[in-house]
Structure formats: C-alpha cells, structure tokens
Amino acid sequence: MLKLRDEQLTLWDTILPEEIRKLPAELAIIDELLDDESFLQPFMEKHPTKTKMGRPTYPIEKYLRLMVLKRKYNLGYESLIKEVGDSITWRLFCRIAIDEPMPDPSTLIYARKRYGDEVVEQLNEALLHKLKEKAVLKHRKLRTDTTVVESDIHHPTDATLLQDGVKVITHLVRKIRQVASHAAQGFEDRTAEIKEKILSIAKVLRRRSRESWEEVDRITESVIEVTEAVVEQANAVVAKIRETGKRMAQQSKGRLQTAITLTGQLIRQAKQVVSGTRVIPDRIVSFFDPEARPIKKGKLAKGTEFGYKVRIDETESGFITGYAVYNGNPADDELLIPAVKAHIETFGVAPTAVATDRGFSSKKNESAVTALGVKRASLPRKGKKGQARTEHENQPWFKDLQRYRAAGEARISLLKRKYGLGRSRYRGLVGSKSWVGFGILTHNLDRAAKMLAKAAK
What we know:
Layout: H1 12-15, H2 18-21, H3 25-34, H4 41-46, H5 60-72, H6 77-86, H7 88-93, H8 105-133, E1 141-151, H9 158-179, H10 191-205, H11 210-240, H12 247-274, E2 293-295, E3 305-315, E4 320-326, H13 336-347, E5 353-355, H14 363-371, E6 376-378, H15 387-393, H16 396-406, H17 408-418, E7 423-424, H18 428-456
Parallel strand pairs: 1-5, 1-7, 5-6
Antiparallel strand pairs: 1-3, 2-3, 3-4
C-alpha cells in the first residue's frame, strides 16, 4: 500500500517553541517547493498497487526529503539516518517527529531501486514547471554539453576482472554450502592463488621493458586457466542443486549462473587481448557494473574514463532543464537535436538561441535546429572555414552566445564537485540515471532557494 504522508500530528508539534520549529530560510523554501502535490504524483503512477491492502510503504514525502538532504550534503545512507536523527531542524524538514524512530538505511535503498530512474525524471519535470509558475525560470537561451559520470569501480585490467569473477563465484558457492553442502563438494577456493598472480604482475611491470609485457601476457594466460577451472567447478555446483530445493539455494543458484556467464565473457575477452586483439567493441570494464564503458573525452589528466556519458542542458537562469545518460560514447553531434526537442517538450516552445561547442556542430544540425524554431544557433563549424562562414561566426551575437556557452563548463564543474556527478555510487545504467537525476534535482532546488530568498529581501 502506497503511503504518501503521515497526517497525524504528534505531541511535539504543539510543545516545541516556534523558534525551534522554524527552518533556515533556504531550507524552508525547499520545503515549500516540495510540499506541492505534483511531487507525489509520479510515485502514485509508479506504485503497482493503488488499493489500501498490504503493508504500507515508507511515507513518500519523508523519503523524498531524506534523499534531497543526502545529495545536498553528500551523505551515505547510514550517515544520513544518523545525522537526521540527531538534528531537530532536519527532522522537521523531513516531517519525522522527534519521538519517531528513524528508518533503516536499507528501507531507503530498496525504495530507490523500486521507484527507479523514471520517477526521478518526473520529479525534475515537476520542479521545472513549479519554477516556471514562480517566474524564476527563463528558457529563451539553451546551452548543452556532455561530460562523463564515472562508475564506482577500480581501474580495469584483464587479470583483475577475472579475479573479481573468481571472488564472486567463490563467495556464492560458500553461501550454497551452508544450505546445500552436497552441491559444493569438490569446489576448490583458488582466490589466494589468483591474488598471488596479480601481485606478480605488479612486480613485473616495474621493469618497464618489452619483455615485461610479454611476461604479463604469460601470467594473464595462467590466470585465465585458473578462472576456467573455477568456472568448470561452479557449473558442476549448479548441476547438483535440485530445482525443488530450498529457496535460498535457488536464489544463490540464479546469482551463481549469472556470475558464471559474466566470467565466461571476461575469459573470452582476456583471450582476445592476450592473442593481440587490443581493440574490442563493447568491452566489459567492470564485473560489478558490466554496462559501464571506456570513454575518451580528450582530457590530458584522464585519457580514458570508465562510466556513462551524460548530456547536460541549461538555460540562462542557471537551471538544468534537461539531461540524458547514455550507454557508451555516442558522438556529440547526434545529441543536439534530442536536446532541443526535449526543451520543446518541456516548455512547449523552442529556445530563441542555442549555443554549443564545435563537437555538436554540423551543417545538418544547424538546419535542423532552425527548422525546429531556433532563431540563432551558435554552432562553431569544425575544420577549415571559408570567408562567409568566418564572417558569420564573427558576428557579435554569435560571439556573445559562445561566451554564454563557455560558462556552462563552470556549471558542470559545480555538479561534479558539489552534487556528485563526478562518480556514480549506484550501479548500472538505471542506477546512474537515478544518481544523476537526484543530483540535478538537488542542484535546481538549491538554486531556486537562493533566487527566491534573494527576491524576498
């Protein structure tokens, strides 16, 4: 049963003095914005049961406010519960009574997975419409750019990826041994052997010679052989588990089969690399986040980043009005038209001006955005430019829009530093979409609070 809020007042609501119950100015504005019914509607549409039967969910208004505080102050789930529990101000903001027990961190984790990334997108849309009603959001100019949100993974090598697979398989077999000991008979724990080989690779690489790389390939081949043996034994474990066995054994069996399949892909990938094939399409870079991809953005500090590409759309008011998370590394010039169309869908009208860097530019894109209703498109052309094009790009309005575009780099830097878009703590493409969505929602709430507080003075 979906529970939206706690309607009943507590004794503390009448006892606490007004000075204590008063929220700080900006937090009070965020509280007022989130109090709108439009923020509850996405949850009502998403929840599978709309009846009053079954166990009630954790109240939505409390969950939403807790998630906003989590991203606003970069807290983990356990730290969030502890800090909110110890603060009267934060309890009041989250609508959690002083004598009410705090939820378990797992309650928020399960809720976030259950509601998914689509609800977060709808929350962002609801906030944009709310800000438009309050006349603080302008949407005449649009700038769009891309960045990479990295996955929370270690730097991938073929040997360490195989090590991760062996570790997970061994862990799952240990769990199966507790409920179906007969199935795990004959399985050998070889994690220590793999670890020793990984450490030997680090010692070899210190020599920095051609012979050292050849030796690394030989060590990797031995890691592949050990991993293949572990996978073979794990398949034998799966075969011994009866279909009508204990529920826990069946759950572990399903997870073990998934781990075996993924480890098999990593083995084939490692064999290709050892044989000399260094460029592999859709290469897996993490056992724990198989959807993450290597992405090159031309940065000197980070030649290759591992994660997901993110498109960020911003208007002249400083609000993020659109975003998209992509699997892989699609070309920037393929993302401009979707950005303009998303803007039109959100606000019902095309932006007057669009500014991007040259990565988004093409003659086709310039014609397409003009056809969509954009009057001025500041898209610097790639390559050598003729005299007519040079004169076009030297016009004052074109240069002004390029200066406006350059300021978008600062916004992306802020999102990475303060709102967590540098690294996603949630796994998978769906998890990264939720992570990015909550970060942008919190950023827009913070900016709205500052602008509305300034206007009220």
